[in-house]
Amino acid sequence: MRTAMGVWRWRRNPLRRPTDLFEAWVAFAALVCVVVVAPAVGWVAGLRVDGTLQQAAYAQRQERHLVPAVVVRPAPAPAEEASAEPSAQRTSPRRTQIVASWTAPDGSSHEGTVPAAEEPPRTGDRFRIWTDTRGRVVGRPLDPSAASFHAGTAGLAAAAAVAVMAVTVRRLVVRRLMHRRYIRLDRAWAAAGPDWGRADAGG
Fold first, then answer.
1. pTM of the model
2. 27 CB contacts (<8 Å, ≥6 apart)?
3. Sign (positive/negative) of CA torsion 195, 200, 202, 203?
4. Residue 128: beta bridge partners?
5. Is the pLDDT of residue 30 over 60?
6. Cα–Cα–Cα angle for 128, 134, 137, nearest 5°?
7. What is the pLDDT of residues 166-197, one digit of tens each?
8. Tell me, what DSSP letter sits at residue 105?
9. Is 71 in contact with 127 (CB distance < 8 Å)?
10. What DSSP element (H or E) covers 68?
């Protein structure tokens, strides 16, 4: 509101300098960008990202399957972990690796090293893992609610970026205008300087 009033105030003000109205319009444009353009950009960006992530989540749910697996035996510890200090192992806990067997959706049998579902793992325990159609271990598919959350975050980031850009451009323009005003003031002062204080200068 103050920005709009500033534009109106400078329309017919007799003290208006050439740059005053331009500065007011720049401030008004920045306000419009922050209030209108930034939310619109954030909304569009959020919708586009949400559509992309929802499609990816749907594709992952179609391609990934939760299949039963059986603990066969503990997996051998890597050499670097076996030689590590006990204090270092305590400060960086990791899930126990086990050798498990499972049957893929296509009927093929598989055996491999996977993280244990429970601690401590026991031979013969049953749990479930995510695999693709051929039985290769994959990550959990993207949840639709998580996709919406990421899309909302992306929309907010886009809106904030537009708002920050608008404010930054306004500040740069105002700084440039102030610099030009100081230059003109210095020139006017330099022109009036030699006559300053003279009795016949009319001061």
1. 0.64
2. 3, 6, 7, 170, 174
3. positive
4. 68
5. yes
6. 45
7. 999 988 988 888 877 777 776 767 776 655 55
8. T
9. yes
10. strand 65-74
